[in-house]
């Protein structure tokens, strides 16, 4: 699924859309030890309005965030469709629309026995239908509309309410109360969307994984629940990119090169902001970026080999590589520089010592929250 297709589903994921409906909802509460304490299975129309609203809000969040960070599409391995595999189990429950006790049980067991939540949680799943309207090149409606039936699943952490002091307005009293009720978060920690909606078609061989925490996705959901092979986290991609940049540039790598590369990748993202597929950095694009920064041809000639060694045959998502600020760190010193002020920082040799120099257009400074100014005489030794 690309950004446009995800947005199409999200836009219609609402009770006001005449093209979308939630057919049936199945919810299980799982305790901290992984035991299923209860399961509720209802038609969406049977839910109380307030309850239905919360469920729709929660499920829609599994399509939120950034593609390539919060949302990652994974192909199922071939063996996953054999009996007992993730694709087989999920597809069977979806095909039966949560109306078959046997396939429901297998689906719940698949998730709850493999998902390492680390806490109590609610497993909320729904079978939904989206009517896909097809149009010709001249934007006229065609007669080949179809229904994309899919399952969306959210794993929502749960915890007990605050057991501190309470105020009772009727009795005008403050007292200690122990509350054993579990509060289920409306914000899922993990989830998935199946089957994906790709090229405006139903693709039963892929699944879209959602994580609330792109830097710390839950590998058990991807690898154990869904049977898929995990790809790099956004931080993992950044680490590999840094390794490629360091290995290629060698002694030519300096402050100017690092900040220039960051600026160029930001430009790549901006130039592709209206594209449906997020831009990626591969070996050829890496060569172009480094050539633009002035790295020597000798160094650029090593990109293909080094990129393959560190990244392999894949690519790196540009959005995962850019930094919103520049952090300069030395022993006991850390300086954060906003991306719009990177040209104010340079290195110089002063009095025979290597120094980091920050140009100040405005002599006013704030140090430890205290306003002050810089009033220094010009140093004749600055080079």
Descriptive account of the structure:
This protein is α+β, with helices and mostly antiparallel strands. The chain folds into three domains: 3-158 and 184-230, no CATH class; 235-320; 325-373, no CATH class. 28% of the residues lie in helices and 30% in strands. The chain has ten helices and 20 strands. The strands form seven sheets. Strands 1, 2, 3, 4, 5, 8, 9 and 12 form an eight-stranded antiparallel sheet that branches. Strands 6-7 form a two-stranded antiparallel ribbon. A two-stranded antiparallel sheet has the order 10-11. Helix 3 (86-95) packs antiparallel against helix 4 (101-112). The longest helix has 17 residues, at 255-271. The protein is globular and about 80 Å long. The chain starts with a helix and ends in a 10-residue tail after the last strand. The mean pLDDT is 89.
Secondary structure topology:
Blueprint: H1 3-12, E1 20-30, E2 36-43, H2 49-60, E3 71-75, H3 86-95, H4 101-112, E4 121-132, E5 146-160, E6 165-168, E7 173-176, E8 182-184, E9 190-194, E10 196-198, E11 201-203, E12 206-211, H5 219-225, H6 234-249, H7 255-271, E13 280-281, H8 283-293, H9 297-300, H10 303-310, E14 316-317, E15 325-330, E16 333-338, E17 345-350, E18 353-358, E19 364-367, E20 370-373
Antiparallel strand pairs: 1-2, 1-4, 3-12, 4-5, 5-8, 5-9, 6-7, 9-12, 10-11, 13-14, 15-16, 17-18, 19-20
Helix pairs in contact: 3-4, 6-10, 7-8, 8-10
């Amino acid at each position: 699924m690309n950004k446009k297709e995800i947005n199409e589903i999200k836009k219609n994921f609402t009770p006001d859309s005449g093209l979308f409906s939630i057919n049936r909802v199945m919810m299980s509460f799982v305790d901290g030890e992984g035991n299923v304490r209860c399961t509720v299975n209802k038609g969406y129309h049977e839910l109380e309005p307030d309850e239905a609203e919360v469920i729709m809000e929660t499920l829609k969040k599994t399509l939120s965030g950034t593609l390539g960070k919060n949302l990652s599409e994974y192909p199922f391995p071939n063996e996953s469709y054999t009996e007992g595999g993730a694709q087989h189990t999920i597809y069977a429950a979806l095909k039966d629309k949560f109306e078959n006790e046997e396939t429901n049980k297998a689906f719940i067991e698949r998730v709850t026995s493999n998902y390492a939540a680390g806490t109590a949680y609610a497993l909320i799943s729904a079978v939904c239908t989206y009517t896909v309207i097809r149009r010709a090149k001249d934007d006229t409606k065609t007669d080949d509309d179809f229904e994309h039936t899919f399952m969306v699943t959210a794993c929502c952490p749960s915890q007990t309410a605050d057991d501190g002091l309470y105020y009772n307005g009727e009795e005008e009293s403050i007292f200690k109360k122990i509350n054993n009720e579990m509060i289920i978060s409306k914000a899922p920690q993990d989830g998935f969307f199946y089957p994906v909606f790709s090229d405006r078609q139903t693709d039963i061989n892929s699944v879209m994984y959602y994580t609330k925490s792109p830097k710390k996705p839950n590998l058990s959901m991807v690898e154990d629940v869904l049977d898929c092979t995990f790809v790099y986290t956004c931080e993992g991609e950044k680490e590999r990119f840094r390794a490629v940049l360091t290995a290629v540039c060698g002694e030519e790598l300096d402050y100017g090169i690092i900040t220039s590369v960051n600026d160029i990748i930001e430009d790549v993202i901006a130039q592709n902001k209206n594209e449906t597929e997020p831009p990626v950095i591969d070996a050829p694009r890496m060569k172009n970026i480094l050539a633009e920064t002035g790295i020597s041809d000798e160094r650029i000639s090593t990109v293909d080999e080094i990129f393959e060694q560190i990244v392999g045959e894949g690519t790196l998502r540009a959005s995962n590589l850019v930094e919103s600020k520049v952090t300069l760190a030395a022993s006991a010193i850390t300086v954060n520089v906003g991306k719009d002020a990177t040209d104010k920082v340079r290195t110089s040799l002063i009095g025979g010592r290597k120094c980091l120099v920050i140009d100040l257009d405005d002599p006013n400074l704030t140090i430890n929250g205290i306003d002050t100014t810089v009033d220094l005489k010009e140093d004749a030794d600055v080079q």
